Amino acid sequence: MHAVPLLDSSANDSDTPAPAEVPLRDLRRVTIHPDHWYPLAWSREVKRGKAHGVRFAGEPIVLVRTASGAVFALEDRCAHRQVPLHAGVVDGESIRCCYHGWTYDCTGRCIDVPYLGRERLPNGVRSYPCREVEGLIFVFPGSAVLADETPLPSLGSVANKAYKTRRFGREVKCHYSFMHENLMDMNHQFLHRRQMGQMRARSLGRRRGDGWVEVDYTFAREQGKQPVGEALVFGGGNKGSKGGQGGKDVMTVRTLYPYQTLQIRTSDGTLVMDLWIVYVPLDAEQRTNRTFGLLSIKKPGIPGILDLAWPLLVWFTERIFKEDRWIVESEQAAHDEQGADWNQEVFPVINELRDLLRECGVPEAPAAN
Amino acid sequence: MHAVPLLDSSANDSDTPAPAEVPLRDLRRVTIHPDHWYPLAWSREVKRGKAHGVRFAGEPIVLVRTASGAVFALEDRCAHRQVPLHAGVVDGESIRCCYHGWTYDCTGRCIDVPYLGRERLPNGVRSYPCREVEGLIFVFPGSAVLADETPLPSLGSVANKAYKTRRFGREVKCHYSFMHENLMDMNHQFLHRRQMGQMRARSLGRRRGDGWVEVDYTFAREQGKQPVGEALVFGGGNKGSKGGQGGKDVMTVRTLYPYQTLQIRTSDGTLVMDLWIVYVPLDAEQRTNRTFGLLSIKKPGIPGILDLAWPLLVWFTERIFKEDRWIVESEQAAHDEQGADWNQEVFPVINELRDLLRECGVPEAPAAN
Amino acid sequence: MHAVPLLDSSANDSDTPAPAEVPLRDLRRVTIHPDHWYPLAWSREVKRGKAHGVRFAGEPIVLVRTASGAVFALEDRCAHRQVPLHAGVVDGESIRCCYHGWTYDCTGRCIDVPYLGRERLPNGVRSYPCREVEGLIFVFPGSAVLADETPLPSLGSVANKAYKTRRFGREVKCHYSFMHENLMDMNHQFLHRRQMGQMRARSLGRRRGDGWVEVDYTFAREQGKQPVGEALVFGGGNKGSKGGQGGKDVMTVRTLYPYQTLQIRTSDGTLVMDLWIVYVPLDAEQRTNRTFGLLSIKKPGIPGILDLAWPLLVWFTERIFKEDRWIVESEQAAHDEQGADWNQEVFPVINELRDLLRECGVPEAPAAN
Questions:
Q1: In this predicted complex, what is the ipTM?
Q2: pLDDT tens digits, residue range B232-258?
Q3: What is the rounded CA–CA span in Å between residue B141 and residue B147?
Q4: Which of B13, B335, B346 is most worth mutating to test chain A (most A CB atoms within 10 A of its CB)?
Q5: How far is C80 from chain A (nearest CA, A)?
């Protein structure tokens, strides 16, 4: 066993300076920064005239779709007895608590207590900036004054008719940082050997800017044939053999805090796959996240063929995601047990990613005396 | 979110003095006072020649019904290896531990260890004062010397042949104080709108005495018709229309620590419904309680009609209790998450009830250094 | 309730000196000593070319059976991302982590990282001494330098063809010390009264040596007839009536730390039953153990009759073990709730056993600052 946790040991990484003597913050305890737009639900989950309870990093939030179809977001507990507002009744453009009928408008103001005069109304609840776009309901959980100046993220090719998009997501029981590292370290193809055959990733280079880091890969098949499902997702051999020398596809994985993208381009620059994904912490400890992903595939020349193959693509991606979910949950379980980050990371871009996630997260509170 | 928990904020309550500057005890951490008689089981649960394990506020207690039919109550663990005595064997008027056969009489004295001489018998276990009345087995978990001078509670109309009584109860995962507040604040009729239609409670006045607080209500139907189940429980419209001006029924809810009653009287003073209820904490944290309730309904003039309608009454009350259980468990869950009482109570009698429950509970231990 | 936990109170035990004034260590918090050989799996659980994850006192250990059939034991987490190696791939005589393919040999050395040069290989993982004997895989979890000088335990009559052996085991949710005390205190026959009828154990005497304690018993039937299952296990009445005066069987129960044995000999000295058993802590708190038992029965004169009766013996022993598991788990539950050992032990050999288990366990760490 290790006497001392190894944080981002870079002893084997000749092109990175040696780590400073000060111990690094445990990345798995870095809180995600709330001053960004986070999707908290799919539009279809919030039906007209209904309320829907969600969580962001432990904060209960109710999404309300009113009679007019608009959506607003409030703290999900009545100011009176703290029970969830999402169990209440949508009444026109307001929501009424299920217990004693206290009523709130879209700003969180209490506008009615049935057994009190209007002149004695109590304080209301917090409201959150809320926007709906491309089937996602985004909430700004941080400082509300920053919401207007903070742009919504670009959602990849989801609005481009030349692409077909799969919306997917699930709960994963791990810190969001494991998700970023999993996707960015393509050496983990070994995990998917049963789905993809033995592929070897080759890192072409990495770049880092303000709030982002990215890396390019090509892939070489070591053994076996390309599965049909994979050909659909990543592009088939007819566009340029991955195993050959010329005309290789390039995959670029980027974390643009707090979002992540994965794009595959053919040698002629065509974007054949475009994934946008984000990992939203659910609990206060940030040990669970809900993934919202938009996977856009460029439609091939023959109309309808992608629709035909879609069930196969869904099946293939689900199997990949299942393996990824299992492994990141195993990482979290190891961290829970060890109580610290014992990782011995040797891959340079992952160490850069880890620095980025630390820097962009909520700064550590100064130590109490 | 609230920076500071709001304890019994009475800012909107003009007829109550402003709260003192000293922070109030968190009511949800007030331990119920053990120097009262509490029912711990229904008589039918403790069969002749059998032992039955129960809990009071975390203390394991075994109820033993001996060969003669008498019931006694002991600490539910053998003095030897601490295993539950309720798994043992009732032997005449004593109980024998299932493991090595240590035997205790009704006072808790160890009267036999099969492999030791009688002259070397070890210490026994604690016994509790125990009484059986009206199908309930009451135990006095506090200071035994106070048991004789403390009367058993009056159980309402259960012994009156003019009434038919439903015995009911269940475990509810919340502090007992939420139960008292739920029943006493009849503005929560909104919660039962699907069962009862929209009713509005009107508080007629409240009274407070030594160890008790009570409040009177009338009800006005705002919408819909009276359901049949409700007519059975609360009395039908033929006895005086609740919606009309004259002849209204009056409901009185009283907490007489630690018990609670709810009575409905018609305008001519007839007691048509008489509920006695108590909420017995099960765990040491007092986050779970077992309810014991006796709901007595005055038999109408036509013989047998109440028996005929009984299944409907059971069905109706079960649905009401299910909603109440769900909401008080939601309140407890909110308290667990918030770690403090954020309630913003505005209804005067509930604030009086909260004071009563604080005053009658176990006094706070002086702070350790 | 007891104001003070009673640790091994021996007030009633005239032949044992009064306990010293210093409070005894809580036996249920004494950590088992790792400098012994412990079985961590049955041989059949570790198939050729497969890895199998186990635990010793919270330490995750992977048992690997290579292509050649040899077994080795490593720390069950990859040095890279800490995920369990037992989910990996056995590759010849090495094991490859399932995630990014890091590879370890039988000494725990990292011999390959697919995307790093061989000259930059990172540190590996811990290995454990490992031996396979009589269908059990033994590991030495303590100081590896002591493994060679520490003999494997003698496994009773398992290798003797005159005996037939049942291998059994299960997880039991209690500290290992409860298991030792359960088996050694034969006054607990009362627990098995439904399986065995009422038997009274009589202690003939006890002996203690360096690292061991043992006690002899005879049994007298108080009531009922000997069940057939019991006759098979403990020997039937035709070898000497247990209830009679002459020719009694003698049972010897011995703890030879950390193992335990139970042997029954007839009056002519024939060993008719020979049990070897050990209780391996699984979790770091040592609140759960896995039992590995070898129950050897002397074959009677008529060939095949024991095989014929074997299912009955299995059924009988399973019922006994089920009762024992339930009671020791009840003891653990009581200890968890009480937070201390309140036992009031009066049987001398059990108090000696408790001393032995304390002395042989891991010494208490000196108090911090």
A1: 0.87
A2: 666 555 444 444 444 589 999 999 999
A3: 9
A4: B346
A5: 5
